């Protein structure tokens, strides 16, 4: 099988490419150039896609003896991921750019280009498993290494995309991956993992958004409308946030305050007590199914954060919309986040949260 190995320049994608080669596939390494102004050297472990990363990926390809190319997708990454991220925050929502990148870049733009060039599949260093059933269907499952599991950010993949995807690290824990990289003589064996939002290298999301959207001073209000503070842009806040509020007036009851609503039209941030954050019903749109869409009401596990807890729930689909009813309340669910549904370890699908509310009083 002819396979494109997506090589970020990190240890995971390096070992994934090596394992595909060991399995007998015809492998070509591809590094995606996603930054329109890639720095020569990375400033921290947060970023990726720098010139240095491309060089690291090339060195691994040389060790493996496979062809290596750099594909420039910076313009599409900016349009489909960075600009989408900015628009979502401006609209008072909290997006997950990793899901959008997997959907629009790695398993749309990259996979589509690979197939157009005559390749059969794409392999990445994601920690997830593809399991083939007795009838030949391919299912997406959680990784063996629960601490590194990335099935949540892959919940946007369709059955067709899964049929052309390989995740060779899904059955391995991260320490063993580093050991294997060292045994293979890869320079990147001890390279730090990139984390958080790759295009915000200093980790300051609020500062990045302020530079992108401009400062927009406004009010922070309590649920009764009382002004309790000020902000430089409502876009920098998310439902469930407690830190960094800078409230000028303490709560009369002495209880901590959290963001309970962001009102972009009024440029207001609303704060309230923790009990106002509890929800047990979620509506999602932009449904994506990793196999057949569920029929009727089904029991699932629902996860709303990349490394968050899975909650027992029921769900049903209505076209592009998904309704999820949680068996117990959870806090801090923000519009724009993704809810990913599981059946055991299998990923059923995902949706972008458009609303969350409390339906049961007890």
UniProtKB/TrEMBL annotation:
Its EC number is 2.8.1.13. Disulfide bonds join 101-198. Residues 208-272 form the tRNA-specific 2-thiouridylase MnmA-like central domain. Its main location: cytoplasm. It is found in: Cytoplasm. The keyword tRNA processing applies. Residues 148-150 are annotated as: Interaction with tRNA. Catalyzes the 2-thiolation of uridine at the wobble position (U34) of tRNA, leading to the formation of s(2)U34. Belongs to the MnmA/TRMU family. PANTHER family: MITOCHONDRIAL TRNA-SPECIFIC 2-THIOURIDYLASE 1 (PTHR11933:SF5), TRNA 5-METHYLAMINOMETHYL-2-THIOURIDYLATE -METHYLTRANSFERASE (PTHR11933). NCBIfam families: PRK00143.1, trmU. This is tRNA-specific 2-thiouridylase MnmA. It comes from Intrasporangium oryzae NRRL B-24470. The lineage of its organism: Bacteria, Bacillati, Actinomycetota, Actinomycetes, Micrococcales.
